[in-house]
Amino acid sequence: MDTFFISHGAPSMSIDETVPARHFLKSWREKVLPEKPKAILVVSAHWETSNPSVNVIDGPNSTIYDFYGFPKPMYQLKYPAPGAPALANRVVDLLKGAGLGPVKQDKARGLDHGAWVPLMFMYPDSDIPVCQLSVVARKDATYHYEMGRALGPLRDEGVLIMGSGSATHNLGAIGPDGGPIPSWASGFDTWLTEALLDGRYEDVKRYEEKAPYAKKAHPYPEHFHPLHVALGAAGDDAKAELIHHSWTNQSLSYSSYRFNKA
């Protein structure tokens, strides 16, 4: 199973049909991954913890509305995908085995919008078991890459590993749709695609010193580290592919990538 990084953008994509990435995600099963995963592990930017954490849900996942001030219909959407407790336990074992523990098991937390918004378009039947893994505060890109490497065996077990974040994420610098893409956003986004497609993964792990406008594109790293997990899970010899590219809010990139073995 290939691994993926999805730029999930604003939660309003859940109801806004004008967002290009929404149509990309709706075409997922036809154009990107016809093979149905046995389970899905989502690493979402919207769950940040001091140690790696997984949700261990026996039954349907609850839908978390971790956003404020949006239209009422967004708070009526639900994505009751079954939990994946066996996968969660496997994640715990793999991370501990790689020396990345302790790993917390959260038996109450459902799916945040970094998980359920893209999944509602990718797999609208909500019939595939889903487990979430957190990003770890105060840990760098290399740490998250190593998390991904530890989780690599899941690919051979039919598990879809999906990082969900954003290729650029500076909410203080967004603007109206249709305006010119600022140079800092396009510069970072172009650098990222070129670095990934060229296999310069060490540069991607050291993006804060290697990429142009890194701090402007990501004032905080939580929306970027899911990419490092997905990349690490694909292995050191993985090949990257840009599978979607679009913009909203002038500076919010939806660049999304597939990582597969050479």
Structure description:
It comes from Acorus calamus. GO terms for molecular function: ferrous iron binding; oxidoreductase activity, acting on single donors with incorporation of molecular oxygen, incorporation of two atoms of oxygen; zinc ion binding. By secondary structure, the protein is an alpha/beta fold. The chain has helices at 20-26, 28-32, 85-97, 113-122, 141-151, 183-197, 201-205, 207-210, 214-217, 225-234; strands at 3-7, 39-49, 53-55, 104-106, 130-136, 159-165, 238-244, 247-248, 252-253, 256-261. The protein has a six-stranded mixed beta sheet with strand order 5-2-6-1-10-7, sandwiched between helices. The radius of gyration is 17 Å and the shape is globular. It starts with a strand and ends with a strand. The model has no long low-confidence stretch (mean pLDDT 96).
Number of helices: 10
Share of β-strand residues: 15-25%
What would the principal axes of the Cα set say about the shape? globular
> Main sheet, how many strands, which sense, barrel?
6 strands, mixed
Radius of gyration: 17 Å
State mean pLDDT (0 to 100 scale): 96
- Number-wise, the strands total 10
Family: Belongs to the DODA-type extradiol aromatic ring-opening dioxygenase family.
Pfam family, one: LigB
Cofactor: Zn(2+)
Organism: Acorus calamus
